Sequence to fold (80 residues):
Amino acid sequence: MNYSGKKSRLKTALVLSGGGSLGAFELGALKVILNKIIPDVIIGTSIGSLNGTMVALGAPLEDMENYWKAAKKSNVFPLN
Fold:
């Protein structure tokens, strides 16, 4: 029940972690997860927030995969 006393359906959250290159690993997991569930909310930190934003915007996973395959350290971490 929610605060109004009405029954509410459970929501599904997709939580993505940070960790630089783990963003590429996360994408592999997303390809499996998003074939099974559609999250109501996406939460992420650091690189997980970037992946989460792309998913929330509806970016094709193939485009995200191509980015990660071509990514260089200087693209992901532009500071010296």
Q: What stands out?
A: The mean pLDDT is 86.
